[in-house]
Design brief:
Strand 3, helix 3 (67-80) and strand 4 form a beta-alpha-beta unit. Helix 7 packs parallel to helix 9 (189-208). A seven-stranded parallel β-sheet has the order 1-2-3-4-5-6-7. It is globular and about 45 Å long. It has helices at residues 12-23, 42-48, 67-80, 96-103, 110-123, 138-142, 147-167, 172-175, 189-208, and strands at 4-8, 29-33, 58-62, 90-94, 130-136, 179-185, 222-226. It is built from nine helices and seven strands. By secondary structure, it is an alpha/beta fold. It is 46% helix and 17% strand.
Amino acid sequence: WFVRQDIRVEDIKEANKKALDILMKGIDSLGFVFAPDNSPKIDEIESLMENIYAQMVEVNFVCGAQAPKMLDIYIELVKKYNRDLAKIHGAVNFDPIANLIIGGKFYESEEADFEACANIIEHSKHLPHFRTLSVNASYFKNSGSDIVQELAYAMAYGNEYLSRLSEKGLSVDDIAPNIKFHFATGSSYFIEIAKTRAFRFLWAKLVNAYGPSRAEYTRTHLHALTADWN
């Protein structure tokens, strides 16, 4: 389990200062949120990560269409500083389906975006604890879905990635572990706990239908955040 706090990156130095401050207060997962049109350079990300020890902190980048580029930058930096790739935890949250849901269109095009999904999974193969694809089920909760609808939409959403990327020749062993689910959590805590437990069971059943080579590939990677309603 990690305790995460998101930081909107508008000024690199200020975002780094904020990150270092909250890391001293018990946070062990950082979410750096970039504007959709922000295309950061490697020197900016190096400054953003100054004095943040990547092997000790989960680092997540929310950067929309820039996620493939961000992944390449982060891999280059962790190699530059001789970090153990097997101990790097985090995500880049690439999610063209979310862009379609919220904005009505893909980042580039349907074909290009799913090809980018396949490529980003290939590029992250040496980072076993770094997730590259996201399923933002929180959008449904925040738009008024009840729990059953939220679970159903999340399953269909995740299955779309499994199905499309399987068609491109990727194994479920590679696809499923790369997906991180984001659920919004309301104030009915026992029901919300039941929701996440039910989803872990349902997702394992779904992934199992694709014939993974090991049971561990059916595990769910979850990020729970407070619902906008709360």
